[in-house]
Protein backbone atom coordinates (compact mmCIF):
# COMPACT_ATOMS: atom_id res chain seq x y z
CA UNK A 1 0.00 0.00 0.00
CA UNK A 2 2.98 2.33 0.37
CA UNK A 3 2.77 3.87 -3.08
CA UNK A 4 0.58 3.79 -6.21
CA UNK A 5 2.62 4.79 -9.29
CA UNK A 6 -0.45 6.28 -10.99
CA UNK A 7 -1.58 8.34 -7.99
CA UNK A 8 -1.28 12.14 -8.17
CA UNK A 9 -1.05 12.49 -4.38
CA UNK A 10 1.68 9.83 -4.15
CA UNK A 11 3.56 11.91 -6.73
CA UNK A 12 3.19 14.99 -4.51
CA UNK A 13 4.54 13.00 -1.53
CA UNK A 14 7.50 11.89 -3.66
CA UNK A 15 8.16 15.47 -4.78
CA UNK A 16 7.49 14.62 -8.44
CA UNK A 17 4.57 17.07 -8.67
CA UNK A 18 4.72 20.46 -6.94
CA UNK A 19 2.35 21.40 -4.14
CA UNK A 20 2.21 24.28 -1.68
CA UNK A 21 3.04 22.49 1.57
CA UNK A 22 1.54 23.66 4.87
CA UNK A 23 2.55 21.13 7.53
CA UNK A 24 3.84 17.62 8.14
CA UNK A 25 3.51 14.92 10.78
CA UNK A 26 4.95 11.42 11.15
CA UNK A 27 2.40 9.78 8.87
CA UNK A 28 0.70 12.69 7.08
CA UNK A 29 1.24 15.90 5.11
CA UNK A 30 -0.92 18.97 4.43
CA UNK A 31 -0.89 21.11 1.29
CA UNK A 32 -3.08 23.63 -0.51
CA UNK A 33 -5.94 22.30 -2.67
CA UNK A 34 -5.36 23.33 -6.29
CA UNK A 35 -9.13 23.76 -6.84
CA UNK A 36 -10.20 25.52 -3.64
CA UNK A 37 -13.84 25.85 -2.63
CA UNK A 38 -12.74 28.79 -0.44
CA UNK A 39 -9.42 30.61 0.00
CA UNK A 40 -7.30 28.58 2.40
CA UNK A 41 -8.82 25.19 1.41
CA UNK A 42 -6.18 22.66 2.50
CA UNK A 43 -5.87 18.88 2.09
CA UNK A 44 -4.42 16.45 4.63
CA UNK A 45 -3.30 13.03 3.36
CA UNK A 46 -1.45 9.99 4.70
CA UNK A 47 2.09 9.54 3.36
CA UNK A 48 1.21 5.96 2.40
CA UNK A 49 -1.36 5.25 -0.29
CA UNK A 50 -4.77 4.22 1.10
CA UNK A 51 -7.91 4.67 -0.92
CA UNK A 52 -10.52 5.45 1.74
CA UNK A 53 -10.84 6.08 5.46
CA UNK A 54 -11.89 2.43 5.84
CA UNK A 55 -8.50 1.24 4.56
CA UNK A 56 -6.33 3.12 7.05
CA UNK A 57 -5.08 1.45 10.24
CA UNK A 58 -6.25 3.33 13.37
CA UNK A 59 -2.85 4.90 14.04
CA UNK A 60 -2.85 6.40 10.54
CA UNK A 61 -6.41 7.69 10.98
CA UNK A 62 -5.35 9.28 14.28
CA UNK A 63 -2.30 10.93 12.72
CA UNK A 64 -4.16 12.21 9.64
CA UNK A 65 -7.06 13.63 11.69
CA UNK A 66 -4.66 14.96 14.32
CA UNK A 67 -2.88 16.95 11.61
CA UNK A 68 -6.23 18.03 10.12
CA UNK A 69 -7.27 19.50 13.50
CA UNK A 70 -3.91 21.31 13.82
CA UNK A 71 -4.29 22.72 10.29
CA UNK A 72 -7.87 23.80 11.10
CA UNK A 73 -6.62 25.71 14.17
CA UNK A 74 -3.86 27.30 12.07
CA UNK A 75 -6.28 28.36 9.33
CA UNK A 76 -8.66 29.87 11.88
CA UNK A 77 -5.85 31.74 13.62
CA UNK A 78 -4.15 32.99 10.45
CA UNK A 79 -7.06 33.54 8.07
CA UNK A 80 -9.54 34.74 10.68
CA UNK A 81 -12.43 32.61 9.42
CA UNK A 82 -15.46 32.08 11.67
CA UNK A 83 -15.53 28.31 11.29
CA UNK A 84 -14.42 25.41 9.08
CA UNK A 85 -15.68 22.26 7.43
CA UNK A 86 -13.49 19.19 7.95
CA UNK A 87 -14.76 16.52 5.60
CA UNK A 88 -13.77 13.61 3.51
CA UNK A 89 -15.29 11.72 0.55
CA UNK A 90 -15.14 7.92 0.19
CA UNK A 91 -16.02 6.40 -3.17
CA UNK A 92 -16.97 8.00 -6.48
CA UNK A 93 -20.66 7.98 -5.48
CA UNK A 94 -19.69 10.19 -2.52
CA UNK A 95 -17.74 12.63 -4.65
CA UNK A 96 -14.26 11.13 -4.31
CA UNK A 97 -12.21 12.00 -7.40
CA UNK A 98 -8.65 11.32 -6.21
CA UNK A 99 -8.24 7.72 -5.02
CA UNK A 100 -5.78 8.57 -2.21
CA UNK A 101 -7.68 9.34 0.98
CA UNK A 102 -7.68 13.05 1.81
CA UNK A 103 -9.30 15.26 4.43
CA UNK A 104 -10.61 18.62 3.20
CA UNK A 105 -10.11 21.52 5.63
CA UNK A 106 -12.24 24.41 4.35
CA UNK A 107 -12.48 27.83 5.99
CA UNK A 108 -16.06 29.10 6.36
CA UNK A 109 -17.70 32.43 7.08
CA UNK A 110 -21.38 33.27 7.44
CA UNK A 111 -22.73 34.45 4.13
CA UNK A 112 -19.89 32.92 2.11
CA UNK A 113 -22.44 31.35 -0.23
CA UNK A 114 -21.09 27.80 0.12
CA UNK A 115 -23.79 25.20 0.71
CA UNK A 116 -23.87 21.42 0.66
CA UNK A 117 -27.13 19.79 -0.28
CA UNK A 118 -28.19 18.33 3.05
CA UNK A 119 -31.66 16.96 2.50
CA UNK A 120 -32.62 16.02 6.04
CA UNK A 121 -35.62 13.80 6.60
CA UNK A 122 -37.46 12.72 9.72
CA UNK A 123 -36.94 9.15 10.95
CA UNK A 124 -39.22 7.04 13.15
CA UNK A 125 -37.53 5.90 16.40
CA UNK A 126 -38.36 2.24 15.55
CA UNK A 127 -36.61 2.61 12.24
CA UNK A 128 -33.54 4.14 13.92
CA UNK A 129 -33.45 1.28 16.41
CA UNK A 130 -33.55 -1.36 13.68
CA UNK A 131 -30.91 0.44 11.62
CA UNK A 132 -28.69 0.67 14.71
CA UNK A 133 -29.05 -3.12 15.16
CA UNK A 134 -28.16 -3.70 11.51
CA UNK A 135 -25.03 -1.54 11.73
CA UNK A 136 -24.10 -3.11 15.08
CA UNK A 137 -24.08 -6.52 13.36
CA UNK A 138 -21.61 -5.09 10.85
CA UNK A 139 -19.27 -4.00 13.68
CA UNK A 140 -18.17 -7.63 14.04
CA UNK A 141 -16.43 -7.48 10.66
CA UNK A 142 -15.23 -3.87 11.03
P1 LIG B 1 -12.26 14.72 -3.84
O1 LIG B 1 -13.37 15.17 -4.75
O2 LIG B 1 -12.69 14.62 -2.40
O3 LIG B 1 -11.57 13.49 -4.35
O4 LIG B 1 -11.23 15.92 -3.84
C1 LIG B 1 -10.08 15.93 -4.62
C2 LIG B 1 -9.44 17.29 -4.39
O5 LIG B 1 -8.07 17.21 -4.81
C3 LIG B 1 -10.08 18.41 -5.18
O6 LIG B 1 -10.51 19.41 -4.27
C4 LIG B 1 -8.98 18.89 -6.11
O7 LIG B 1 -9.01 20.27 -6.31
C5 LIG B 1 -7.73 18.44 -5.38
N1 LIG B 1 -6.56 18.19 -6.22
C6 LIG B 1 -6.49 17.41 -7.32
N2 LIG B 1 -5.24 17.41 -7.82
C7 LIG B 1 -4.49 18.22 -7.01
C8 LIG B 1 -3.14 18.65 -6.99
N3 LIG B 1 -2.26 18.23 -7.93
N4 LIG B 1 -2.73 19.46 -6.01
C9 LIG B 1 -3.60 19.89 -5.07
N5 LIG B 1 -4.89 19.54 -5.03
C10 LIG B 1 -5.34 18.72 -5.98
ZN1 LIG C 1 -1.53 7.70 -3.53
Descriptive overview:
The two termini are 19 Å apart. The mean pLDDT is 97. This protein has a 5-stranded antiparallel beta sheet with strand order 1-2-3-5-4, covered by helices on one side. The protein contains 3 helices and 5 strands. The longest helix has 22 residues, at 58-79. The protein is 30% helix and 18% strand. It binds adenosine monophosphate and zinc ion. Adenosine monophosphate binds at residues 8, 17, 19, 33-35, 43, 89, 95-98.
What distinguishing features does this structure have?
binds zinc ion; single chain; 30% helix; globular; five-stranded antiparallel β-sheet; alpha+beta; 5 strands; binds adenosine monophosphate; 142 residues
Question: What would you say about this model in short?
Answer:
The protein has 142 residues and is an alpha+beta fold. Helix content is 30%, strand content 18%. It has helices at residues 8-13, 58-79, 125-138, and strands spanning 21-24, 28-32, 42-46, 83-87, 103-108.
Amino acid sequence: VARDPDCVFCKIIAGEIPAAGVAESDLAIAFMDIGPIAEGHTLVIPRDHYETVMDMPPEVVADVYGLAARVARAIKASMGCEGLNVLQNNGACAGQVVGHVHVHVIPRDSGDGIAWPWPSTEAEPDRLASLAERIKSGMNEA
